[in-house]
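The protein record reproduced below.
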Amino acid sequence: MRKYDYREKWKKLLTPEIISLLTSIHEYKGEQRLIAERYADVLTDLVDIARIQSTESSNKIEGIYTSDERLKKIVLDKTMPRNRNEQEIAGYRDVLNTIHENYDFIPIRATLLLQLHRDLYKFQGAGTGGVFKNVDNTIEEVDENGKAKIRFQPVSAWETPEAVDQLCAAYNQVLKEPDVDPLLIMPMFILDFLCIHPFRDGNGRMSRLLTLLLLYQGGYYVGKYISIEKLIERTKDSYYEDLQASSTGWHEELNDYAPFVKYLLGVVVASYREFFERTKLITSVKMSKPERIAEEIKNHIGTITKAQLVEQVPDVSQTTVQRTLTELTKQGKIIKLGAGRYIKYRWNWDQEDEQ
């Protein structure tokens, strides 16, 4: 059985590229804390939006969907799930809420991982969640001809309970080391969790929930305001490529953690940058919503669509976005390009220069 011990392995990851990512995140952490404390009331909308986007994206990666309207009602706990997909979405919502509210009181132990997995499937039949796999599973991929092939063979079912115990023990042990950066250990833990693949179903979603949990426990709260799961969904091709690269030779303890570590740290950096971009406008209390929309278009390089704008100002309704686009076009401040669903907009810098 593979041995789980991070005490020396993390030192091999201190490359200039990874150190640069760690440094950026540490700097962002302090800036974000000040903004979050000063504008807690203003940022409430971002928290709700991130919860909706996180629940949607993490489930979409696994092919679990519902309508936008139903999704919002389920995440805000305003309706009961109607089918299996919605049951899984509601379960994710509840575990996400548990992590948001109780991250300091969730030790990294096998028993707690089982409880979180149980809650992930709480709306389904008994025994669906909260137990480790009882049969061996495989991670497969389908080629361009539709043929399935094994991409990775996880730990066998009979070895899984001990493997998870050792994984959790190794994580807790290395965090006692005075010089270790918890931010570096977090993606190593997540990679090993995915390689063990301890559950019959839900491993991917559990890994993303655990990513948030470990980040919060380390004081990195950006996932409360910006959906890390959504950023992973946007870059899922890179996610799977780097996961594959870092899992090669895993059973023989010859794998290289670096690709997956760089990927996940890059996602965290991107989350912080998006946080600062959004809060730059939201915390400008003198700026109205139409003014914020105009500022987004003005600061955007090239053209921008209505859908992109809605994503950039998620606390502003689509109606307000459309009304503002129409008004800005009439005023000549923006230029409308294309027609129908291919409409794009850009800032009219010629008019700006004339003023």
Remarks:
- Strands lie at 139-142, 148-152, 334-337, 344-347.
